[in-house]
UniProtKB/TrEMBL annotation:
Its EC number is 2.7.1.36. GO terms for molecular function: ATP binding; mevalonate kinase activity. Keywords: ATP-binding, Kinase, Nucleotide-binding, Transferase. Transmembrane segments: none annotated. This is mevalonate kinase. Gene3D superfamilies: 3.30.230.10. Signal peptide: none annotated. InterPro entries: GHMP_kinase_N_dom, GHMP_knse_ATP-bd_CS, Mev_gal_kin, Ribosomal_Su5_D2-typ_SF, Ribsml_uS5_D2-typ_fold_subgr. Residues 48-138 form the GHMP kinase N-terminal domain. It comes from Myodes glareolus (Bank vole). Belongs to the GHMP kinase family. Mevalonate kinase subfamily. GO terms for biological process: cholesterol biosynthetic process; isopentenyl diphosphate biosynthetic process, mevalonate pathway. GO terms for cellular component: cytosol. It is found in: Cytoplasm.
Length: 163
């Protein structure tokens, strides 16, 4: 059973420092501002083990409308985290290391999901963890909210729609 929220959430002090670095307004409520803040937090946190921070060109494009309840922030976090973890060689590159399979192994997906949850924490404060799990594994999930606000993923759901 996978439990999210194992690590400490980004502190308000860390987020305020990142807002200053990015010249973001103090309230930072717009989707673009929150996306920049999540990127900076994830980039600096994931790439901290590198001798020098990698130079990256990041292009973000989506057809998911922000704020419509479709998990666009989770999709953003998952894609960003997967790219950063791959660039920092924290996970395998499925197109390079796994040949024609083109899929991350489960342990890499666990890492992507964990870090994407941290991105969701920056954007939403206290997310459920469902959106990033769906975006990571590409399937519906069943979850329980346990004491201490841990989210436990019981497993994937298979939906069958018939006539």
């Amino acid at each position: 059973m996978y439990q999210q929220g194992d690590g400490p959430a980004p502190t308000p002090e860390q987020l305020e420092k990142l807002k200053k670095v990015a010249s973001l307004p103090g309230d930072c409520v717009g989707t673009e501002g929150l996306a920049v803040l999540a990127f900076l937090y994830l980039y600096l946190t994931i790439c901290r083990k590198q001798r020098t921070l990698p130079s990256l060109d990041i292009v973000v494009w989506s057809e998911l409308p922000p704020g419509a309840g479709l998990g666009s922030s989770a999709a953003y976090s998952v894609c960003l985290v997967a790219a950063l973890l791959t660039a920092c060689e924290e996970i395998t590159n499925p197109l390079k290391d796994r040949g024609a399979v083109g899929r991350w192994p489960d342990e890499d997906l666990e890492s992507i999901n964990k870090w994407a949850y941290e991105g969701e924490r920056v954007i939403h404060g206290n997310p459920s963890g469902v959106d990033n799990a769906v975006s990571t594994w590409g399937t519906s999930v069943c979850f329980l909210i346990l004491p201490a606000r841990l989210v436990a993923f019981v497993g994937a759901l298979t939906l069958s729609l018939g006539q």
